Amino acid sequence: MAIPKYQNILKLHLKGVSNLRIAKICNCSRTTVVGAVNECNKLELTLSQVEKMSDAQLKQTLYPHQEREQKNKPDVEAIADELTSNKDVTLKLLWKEYVEDCREKKAAPLMYSRFCYYYQQHAAKKHVSGHIERESGFSAEVDWGGTIMHWQDVYTGELLDAYLFVACLSYSRYTYCEAFANQIMDSWIIAHNHMFRFFQGVPKILICDNLKTGVVKHIKGETKINQTYLELAKHYGTVISPARVRHPKGKPNVEDSVGIIANNVIAALRHQIFNSLGELNKAIYEKIEEINACPFQKREGSRKLLFKQVECNDLQPLPATPYELAEWHTSLKVQYNYHVKVDKWFYYSVPSQYIGKQVSLRMTTTVVEIFFSSERIATHTKNYDKRHPYRTEILHMPTAQQEAQQRWNERRFLSWANSIGPHTGKVVSGVLSSRQVIQQAYPGCMALLNLAQTYGNEHLEQVCTEIIDSGLSPSFTNVKNLLAAMAQESTAGTSAKPVPKGLLRDPSYYREMIAQGDTHDQR
After folding, report:
1. Which of 402, 427, 451 is the last residue of a domain?
2. Are residues 65 and 100 both part of a single domain?
3. Which domain holds residue 397?
4. Are 71 and 108 in contact (CB under 8 A)?
5. Structure confidence at residue 162 as a pLDDT band (50, 70, 90)
6. pLDDT above 50 for 25
7. Higher confidence at residue 205 or residue 401?
8. Lowest-confidence segment of 126-135, 144-153, 453-462 by average pLDDT
9. How far are the Cα atoms of 103, 269, 355, 367, 401 from residue 407, in angstroms, in the given order?
10. Computed over its alpha carbons, how large is the radius of gyration of the chain?
């Protein structure tokens, strides 16, 4: 509040000018002139005294009671702290406490209106804002829009919700928007992939709200970003910087874009019916193109023009492939067979020195990565075949097993089998091809070929021929059972019929039963 020109007022008064004329000359109210003149007459001030004092000094001389008011001025800093720290505290309550304090000090308190005036003056100074110059290509602001749109299921007629993902570049304010069926992590990641493709580049910083899909914890001095969101930022070479909690001005451009979209997209499309998210997003894209092409009100050009001419060139390049959503499994223990179990079905190998250690596993739709203390120790293609649940790398095996694998290989087993006979070679080849990791079939091949030591090469070749001709599955178990049956038949032909013991019955028993059944039918 400006101090009236008391020196001019009193000079003119002492020179005999009327109060009304003084008010017009000094451009102030007549009440101010009358009050100053009356106080001057009471104090019997002379012209020389008035000329020696400034307007501020004259005010203190004319109105000393206002100086007393300054002594009782409330502590506006303490008032501001109270209002900020406790939402239940009001100015009225603080004024009552101020009055009680003044009475204890035997001082005259201010009226409530004057008390509020001093606080408002302080608050106005504290909330001074300034323009922040944004750097081209530096940041993008992302958020979910507040208003929900709808689309109709073409089969059931049910209205389904559609949530809007909104993003804009801070410099050009070039805006992107897309509708999703939900706000889960999958939608959040897909939205970012589409956003970067729309912007044709990546900003250095992503400014997001404190939503669960982006930020796990954000308090003063500690920020914890969602692990999957961090992986996305790492893939694109950017940094996530969450805005302060309950401070929408930390991302003002996207907040402004949300309002623009509410007026120009949601309101504009409110009467249209969409039968799919694809139809809805097509209509949204057309409206976003109009928003980006619309000229600025207070700047030259438009969002699209400023983006194409300036910001597009300052963005970081896109990676060769978009980020692929990953699922994390933590605190997995490496089993004694140097494999890690995941999803109740599948096993992936790690180097044998990590047996008994706790590892983390990152799994996408195509790749499985295993980490120990943030260091990747194994990579596998993702397994979907429950019949062959193991994924094993030879280099992950212990040294003794690796040496055994080097001594025995597919070619050696096939050479050994073919030396017995061609059908034995076919059976062994079938056993080798029955396992996804061929090394897992080596023990079965070894056991099968060793049967020749017990039954002879001719019998083994004969049984393998029967398996190939009959279309049975080539396996160690089938070969062993047929050889055992063959041995029992040859024993039965050269010796007296053995007396069955307990419930044991050999193949000849069933042949006799079949023969008796045929004779009975003929009768």
Report:
1. 402
2. no
3. 327-402
4. no
5. very high
6. yes
7. 205
8. 126-135
9. 101, 72, 25, 31, 10
10. 45
Same domain, 158 and 290: yes
Sign of the CA dihedral running 418, 422, 427, 429: positive
The answer to whether residues 273 and 192 belong to one domain is yes
Distance CA 268, CA 314 (A): 33
Token pair for 6: 């008391």
* Residue 134 belongs to some domain of the structure: no
Residues 243 and 280 in one domain: yes
Between CA 4 and CA 29 the distance in angstroms is: 10
Task: Report the relative pairing of strands 327-333 and 239-240 from DSSP bridges.
Answer: unpaired
Does 322 map to a domain?
Answer: no
Please tell me what DSSP assigns to residue 398.
Answer: -
> Quick one: 275 and 246 in the same domain?
yes
pLDDT at 332: 92
pTM of the predicted model as reported, rounded to 2 decimal places: 0.49
pLDDT of residue 164: 92
Q: Does residue 225 form part of some domain? A: yes
Distances (CA, A) of 458 to 127, 454, 465: 99, 11, 11
Asked if residue 259 belongs to a domain, the reply is yes
Say if residue 340 is in the same domain as residue 274: no
Closest CA to 332 of 308, 313, 349: 349
234 and 169 within one domain: yes
Calculate the alpha carbon distances from 204 to 48, 94, 196, 233 in Å. 69, 46, 12, 10
The phi, psi pair for 60, rounded to 5°, reads: -65, -35
Q: How far apart are the first and last CA of the chain?
A: 131
pLDDT at 65: 60
CB-CB contact of 362 with 327 (8 Å) = yes
Please name which of 401, 228, 252 lies closest in space to residue 326, comparing C-alpha atoms: 228
Say if strands 205-208 and 239-240 run parallel, antiparallel, or are unpaired.
parallel
Of 46, 69, 92, the residue that ends a domain is: 69
The three-state DSSP-derived secondary structure of 209-245 is CCCCCCEEEEECCEEEECHHHHHHHHHHCCEECCCCC
Do 150 and 190 have their domain in common?
yes
* Alpha-carbon gap, residue 360 to 415, rounded angstroms: 43
State how many domains the chain has.
5
Residue with tokens 């050479």: 415
Query: According to the model, what pLDDT value does residue 5 have?
Result: 76
Token output for 328:
């994390």
